[in-house]
Specification:
Layout: E1 2-7, H1 12-27, E2 34-39, E3 51-52, H2 53-61, H3 65-82, E4 93-94, H4 98-106, H5 109-124, H6 133-142, H7 147-154, H8 157-171, E5 180-183, E6 187-190, H9 195-214
Parallel strand pairs: 1-2
Antiparallel strand pairs: 1-5, 3-4, 5-6
Helix pairs in contact: 1-3, 1-9, 4-5, 4-8, 5-6, 6-7
Length: 215
């Protein structure tokens, strides 16, 4: 089963959707799963130093402080029900996520899912700047990635440009929001849907694959 996941590392709904998907996979009894992570950078224009988070989100969403806090409370509650922490009070910066996606891309496949999760934890639980190379190098080192190699790869201009280009591709192919999941190139699910919805998508994609082989 091939699962393509389109996400951004500062998207709380992406973190919730990831948790729902992995909970669904824990229940699924089907074939071996291969996951491919694809960048969908939400805020291309954010500079390397980031923007102050609350004012940025106010302008982005067109909300008052009170309305923004209500939105945060709602998303936090949904996250708690899913089993993930979303500590918006700790987030001080709206960050550029290009480098975080670059780290995911260069991580060995066997640890890539764990790298994604630790990036989410760094931002949504610890309030760290995941656009900062030092934060990302520390995450890579936690998973036995070589520090010197990491620094070279995370400062490679061509590789960073490739991550940006990869983020544009889904927009040109009908994906306009995240998270978005595509199962076996045939079944698409948009949004942080429930575990049951994702289980049904897995089963449907597997069934379509069986039918295709019969024909």
């Amino acid at each position: 089963m091939l699962i393509d996941i389109f996400h951004d590392t500062v998207c709380p709904w992406c973190r919730i959707g990831k948790k729902h998907l992995f909970d669904a996979l824990a229940q699924w009894k089907g074939e071996t799963v291969n996951i491919r992570w694809h960048p969908f950078i939400l805020y291309h224009a954010v500079p390397p130093q980031g923007y102050e988070y609350i004012s940025f989100m106010q302008k982005r969403k067109g909300l008052s402080i009170a309305e923004l806090q209500q939105m945060f409370a709602h998303v936090r509650q949904v996250g708690e029900l899913a089993g993930v922490k979303l500590n918006f009070d700790k987030i001080s910066l709206a960050v550029n996520t290009q480098l975080s996606h670059q780290l995911i891309a260069i991580a060995p496949v066997k640890i890539r899912n764990n790298i994604v999760e630790e990036i989410y934890q760094a931002y949504f639980e610890d309030g760290l700047n995941i656009g900062d190379i030092e934060v990302l190098v520390a995450i890579g080192k936690n998973h036995q990635m070589d520090e010197n190699t990491l620094r070279l790869q995370l400062t490679d201009v061509n590789a960073i440009d490739a991550a940006v280009t990869a983020s544009i591709f889904p927009r040109l192919n009908g994906i306009n929001s995240v998270p978005s999941f595509i199962f076996n190139n045939k079944v698409k699910v948009d949004g942080s849907q429930s575990v049951n919805v994702l289980l049904r998508a897995l089963n449907r994609a597997a069934f379509i694959e069986v039918l295709a082989k019969q024909w």
